[in-house]
Structure formats: structure tokens, C-alpha cells
Amino acid sequence: MSLDKNQIAQRIARELEDGYYVNLGIGIPTLVANYIPEGLQIVLQSENGLLGIGPFPFEGEEDADLINAGKQTITATPGAAFFDSSTSFAMIRGGHIDLTVLGAFEVSEKGDIASWKIPGKLVKGMGGAMDLVAAAKNIIVAMMHTDPAGNSKLLPECSLPLTGKGVVKKIVTNLAVLEVTGDGFKLLERAPGVSIDEIKAATSGRLIIEGEVPEMDFS
Description:
The chain has one domain (5-208): 3-Layer(aba) Sandwich (Glutaconate Coenzyme A-transferase). It is built from four helices and 13 strands. The protein has helices spanning 5-13, 85-93, 129-135, 196-201, and strands spanning 21-24, 43-46, 50-53, 76-82, 99-102, 106-108, 113-114, 139-142, 154-155, 170-172, 176-181, 184-190, 207-208.
């Protein structure tokens, strides 16, 4: 059984450590805000100018003026701060973000990430992702293991224009948790019910398997 988007976010939330300042990218990463482990003091930053993002609002409680970088309505935690874009990117470029969680179209076995350019579609540019991948201390990618046609998104080399080179540390997909090493993708965990053979078939880049690979634990 492969994971859904919320389960990917739930697994990534287990990577958070007390006191972390975290930036959540557009898409699956934004869901991590709903699964922060109880007892951890985590400060979520949005590049459009908010420090202190809370969980998504319940239906009927949305504030149209309170949004994240992906234009989704959000909540703010007590003590949250609002500021302009230049201040936001000063935080990012100054190396004050401990962890960035990003979505991606492709990740290479060397840790390169392609997350902004879609072939045949007009885009304005890579936006803040360029700064986030260059300055964050740790980058985790949240993504589906394959594209809708079944092609692997974990590749020997990215075919799309890069957002950053050699920056990704870990990847959580609907099939597995993988660490980027100097030798390729190291398989750390499997989604419940997903076999190693399924992961091998869905991974085009070098896959390293050492010993018994446990299933993810959501208990």
C-alpha cells in the first residue's frame, strides 16, 4: 500500500527537532504543519512574510487575508510575526532556516533537485526555491516516487532545469524513505506493504539496499 499525501507529510514531521525553524514549500510540504509532534517547539516560516504558521483552518474559519506562499489559507500561532518579503528572504539567505521541505519533479542520485520548470508550460521563474535550496541547512523532498505515467522521478541525472545541485539530503515518497549518499539513494524505510522489488522497479537512479529494510511506523 503506497502512502497518500497526508501520510507523506506525517512521516516527514517525524524528522523535525525541537527548536527548528522550518520552511514548508508548496504542495505536499504544506501538510506537514498538521502533523507536528506534540511537545515540540517548531516555528514554521513562509517566504511571503510569516513566522509562526499554524495548522490549516477548519472549514468556515478561514481568513482570506492569511495565506502561505502557495496562496492557501492558514492559521497563525500565538506570537506569530508578519513582515515584508525582503525580511523574509534575509532570514532564508542568512542561514536561519534549519530545515526546508520541498516538492520536486525530479531528484538525482547526487542530490540535485528540479522543482520549478515544467516542459511546455510558461513559468515566471523558480522564485524563492532558489534561495531556499542554497541557504537551508537541511533539505527534505516530499514527492511521489513516479509521475502519472509511471516513470521514475528518482533519476541518475535530472532531465529538467535544476533548482539546486547536490542539496537534497533525504526524500520521502509514497513508497519509501531514502537518504542521498555519495553512492546513490540509500533505502531507509518502506511504505507499509510495499516490497523492495516495487521500490527497485520505480527507481531509475542507483538504489542502495543494506540489510533488512523496515516498514514505516505510524503508531
